[in-house]
Amino acid sequence: MTQLVLASGSAIRRKILKNAGIPFAVQTSGVDEDALKQDWAGDDPSDLAVRLAEAKASAVQVPGDVVVLGADQVLSCEGELFDKAKSVDEARDRLLHLRGKTHTLHAGLAAVRGGEVIWRYRTESHLSVRPFSDVFLETYLDRAGEVLTQSVGAYAYEGLGAQLFHHVDGDYYAILGLPLVPLLDFLRQQNVIET
Question: How far apart are CA 15 and CA 117, in angstroms?
Fold first, then answer.
């Protein structure tokens, strides 16, 4: 079997792969995402997510017959792109900006084998944030903890963050940051998991 290396430090991506029974190792890429986002400013958000995933996968150098998987996610709302919040105050501002609006999560995957990009995947999910109260927001901020700075939307959709939405159109795993079903198909083709 071919080995899989995840070029991401994301705890949720590791959990998704582990729960799906996929053997993998982790090696973070060290890519300066902020610099790349500046270089690629003006890119379509879905293109940007894929390019960032490619950059991460390409930066990880491992010997042997290995598939390196990069993943990224970009949030856009009303033509503006958002990065992960750096503080609770920034998370509050982000959620207030998203309140009552629909935003898009652009998920991108890329795989590298032998130094060559062999697979790219992109998908979009549309999430409508309900017009929550200020009291709900403060309670959420108090309870959410580290989630606020670990996801681009300042929410963990798989947990407490689900309460923020009144309508969601998209793949559950893509919203979490790792579109699992198409990934599984690709991994079977690459002999990483059994067919």
Answer: 24
